[in-house]
Each structure stands twice: as structure tokens, then as C-alpha cells.
Specification:
two-stranded parallel sheet, 181 residues, 12% strand, alpha/beta, DNA polymerase, domain 1
Length: 181
């Protein structure tokens, strides 16, 4: 009886080994029906996008300097509530970073047809910047000083380069600032 079990196991193992020789190693067996792309980790970078895009997530780019236009293209573009005043398509993006696309209308009010009131961090006056939740006198002054020394902001996340604005402050203000009208 034990001899029969050993023979059956050996025959099954031989059949399995022979069958695997005919299977294409590049075959994608996933349910999506797409193909798998192998990317050289030394030349690729990952950039994330969240917020009002069709497919938020992390995307791999093989070009040296992907732009916001490349990222939005990879993510399927803006959804119907994406605010196109909050990014520049030409902005060169940093590797291993994530970018946020804010809503044009308040997501908590389904019936809202009035856009969220936003202030431009590229040309807003000190008084206008003070109306943004979380911006006091020192931060409004720092934004203007930074802008004068470094030029315009090309992404919303670049405001975190301003002294006094970190991740928590950015999360507080990100839906209420824009880059251009």
C-alpha cells in the first residue's frame, strides 16, 4: 500500500515538472487581463496622488523628471470635483512624494453649487492670506517673504518649504489655497 502511494506521488511530481516546462514565465495569470511590466528600480521613481483624481494611488515613472501632467495622466485625470487652480501642469515632481488635488466644492455638502472660497498663495496679499484657516500674521508674512525670495509655488505641497508650515498646517489649509486663478 505504501509503495503505491510513493509511486503515485512520484508520477504526479514528474508530470508537474514536465508541465511547468511548457508554461510561459511571463504569463500574467491575474484577473485583470493586463500585462505585467518589470521596471528597473534603479531608474524608476514612485509618485503618489490623492484627492480629486479618477484613480488615486502611487505611480511608477521611468523618466527623469515627471511633471504634474504626467501624474494626472497616469491617474486618469481629475474627477468632476477636482480644482484645476491648485496645480501647474509643468511642475516637475519629486521622487517618492505624494501630491494632493483638492476639491472645488465642499465634499461634505452634496448639494453645494458654490465653490470653496480659496486664496492664491502666489499672489494673495497679506490680508487675504490671513483669511485662510491656520494662517496668522507670522505665516502670512513668511509666505510673502518666501515667494519674493524663491518665486511662485508650483505645487500646493511646496508651501511646506515656508517656515512655520509643516504637514499638520498643510492639512489644515490645503482645501483653501490655490496657485492661480
Amino acid at each position: 500500500m505504501i509503495l503505491k502511494v510513493i509511486v503515485v506521488v512520484c508520477v504526479c511530481a514528474i508530470i508537474g515538472l514536465v508541465a511547468f516546462q511548457f508554461v510561459d514565465p511571463n504569463l500574467d495569470l491575474g484577473a485583470g487581463g493586463g500585462s505585467t511590466t518589470i521596471v528597473d528600480d534603479k531608474t524608476s521613481i514612485t509618485i503618489g496622488v490623492t484627492g480629486e483624481v479618477s484613480s488615486p494611488g502611487d505611480y511608477v515613472f521611468t523618466e527623469d523628471k515627471p511633471t504634474m501632467e504626467d501624474l494626472l495622466g497616469a491617474s486618469g485625470g481629475l474627477n468632476t470635483n477636482g480644482d484645476d487652480r491648485c496645480f501647474n501642469l509643468e511642475a516637475v515632481l519629486e521622487a517618492n512624494s505624494s501630491y494632493y488635488i483638492p476639491p472645488k466644492y465642499d465634499n461634505s455638502n452634496i448639494c453645494s453649487n458654490e465653490p470653496i472660497s480659496k486664496i492664491s498663495i502666489n499672489d494673495g496679499t497679506k490680508e487675504e492670506l490671513l483669511t485662510v484657516n491656520g494662517f496668522g500674521d507670522a505665516i502670512a508674512t513668511s509666505i510673502i517673504s518666501y515667494r519674493e525670495a524663491n518665486g511662485v509655488f508650483y505645487t500646493l505641497e511646496a508651501i511646506m518649504n515656508v517656515s512655520g508650515i509643516g504637514y499638520a498646517k498643510f492639512n489644515m489649509c490645503k482645501n483653501y489655497i490655490i496657485l492661480h486663478d
